[in-house]
Write a structure and sequence with these properties.
Length: about 400
């Protein structure tokens, strides 16, 4: 198997591919493979990162600044409000993605199932000839009017067939289908899946069932967070003959926006008011609703029901190819105008110094705040807390404190 690596901001490469691999690469959304004749294809990134693997080739598109797998999983999981801890992933930053994911899933599943398969209560609805649990009166009347039996009943059963085990089984099955996983790791994944044979399989294409972290399922927390990432972002399937494929594809711009919003909402909880994500506001007046212009900042902090500061998260900034920080400033200026707030914070992924831009002929300030994703997760979250502290300080200095908004 050939291993190809692209940077998400690179101009691409020319490589020889077989037609099925090129077709799967295009379908995955990770990159674009354009035929050039003689079996050669031009492979170009399309704004996503991740890995696609077939029986003949693996293509990795890595995030800018060469962020490792641990950092990517941290951002993904934190954005999902799952409280993911980087140390729960048994992945060296330099290892290839599929090996790290498979090994991590095997290790975490072994810890989770070490004391046996988790059991819990599952609500079951059945038609029985005897009473068990409670009778569903409305269903009995609508389905069997005038009949005494069978009875429509509902009861709680203590079983292994619960959401936590269904998620874990599905992730083990999916990683077990990835071509090229080391035989010893593949054997561990199959052995672990065998412990969950009494658990129902998730139908193909079905959503990940919800589960609630509790003290009772504490030993499952880490493996379920990784399993959910695998199920939501990875696919693996068998094609014709021995042709097997797998993909793990994410949109880093969306991941960054979600991460900043979630982390900032947590940090701003220490201050009065509330942070709202993806806040809609009107920019223009019009007789018809369809003629109105609107803006949608990534986050807005509210006091007394009024916006006092706006935030936008941008994964690609001026230093990135094809990106324009000036366009971002125009956008933030529109946000401040629509919301009548004096300050907007432009949070971008990258290194550098915080900069204050005072917009001429206005009372509006736009602050550029870099967020270095190459730093450890604790430092990244520390930077978000600093962003919260500084932006709240600007609110106080502007005089838009809670006292200014009675009630």
């Amino acid at each position: 198997m050939r291993h190809l690596v692209l940077d998400e901001l690179s101009g691409g490469m020319v490589e020889r591919l077989d037609a099925p691999s090129a077709a799967f690469l295009n379908a995955s959304g990770l990159a674009k493979a354009s035929p050039m004749g003689m079996g050669l294809y031009r492979i170009e990134p399309v704004g996503k990162v991740g890995s696609v693997r077939t029986s003949t080739v693996q293509l990795d598109v890595r995030p800018k600044d060469r962020l490792g797998l641990g950092r990517l999983l941290f951002l993904l999981s934190y954005a999902g409000e799952q409280g993911f801890r980087q140390d729960a992933v048994a992945a060296d930053e330099e290892r290839e993605l599929w090996s790290a994911l498979a090994e991590s899933l095997a290790q975490l599943a072994e810890r989770a199932l070490g004391r046996g398969v988790l059991q819990g209560y599952l609500t079951v609805e059945e038609s029985l000839r005897t009473v068990k649990g409670r009778i569903r009166i409305s269903d009995q009347i609508s389905r069997r009017p005038g009949m005494l039996v069978p009875l429509e009943v509902s009861y709680d059963e203590f079983t292994e067939d619960i959401a936590e085990n269904r998620i874990l089984r599905a992730a083990l099955e999916r990683m077990g289908q990835v071509p090229g996983v080391r035989p010893e790791v593949l054997g561990r994944l199959r052995q672990l899946k065998g412990k969950l044979d009494a658990v129902a399989r998730l139908p193909a294409g079905s959503p990940v069932p919800p589960w609630t972290p509790t003290r009772m399922n504490l030993r499952y927390h880490a493996v379920l967070r990784l399993a959910e990432l695998i199920l939501r972002n990875a696919s693996a399937e068998a094609g014709e003959g021995s042709h097997r494929t797998a993909s793990f594809v994410v949109d880093m711009a969306q991941v960054f926006e979600d991460f900043v919003g979630t982390a900032l909402r947590s940090a701003m909880a220490a201050y009065p008011g509330e942070l709202r994500l993806r806040y809609n506001a009107l920019l223009s007046e019009a007789v018809r609703d369809s003629d109105r212009l609107s803006v949608r900042p990534d986050a807005v902090h509210m006091l007394g029901g009024r916006p006092v500061v706006a935030y936008n998260a941008k994964y690609r900034a001026a230093s990135d190819a094809g990106a324009s920080l000036t366009a971002d400033h125009y956008q933030m200026l529109a946000h401040c105008t629509a919301l009548a707030v004096p300050t907007a914070w432009l949070v971008y992924a990258g290194k550098g110094e915080m900069k204050l831009r005072r917009i001429l002929n206005t009372d509006i300030d736009i602050v550029e705040f870099p967020l270095d994703l190459s730093r450890p997760p604790s430092d990244i979250l520390g930077s978000i807390q600093e962003l919260a502290r500084l932006s709240w300080g600007e609110v106080v200095r502007a005089g838009t404190t809670p006292a200014a908004f009675p009630g």
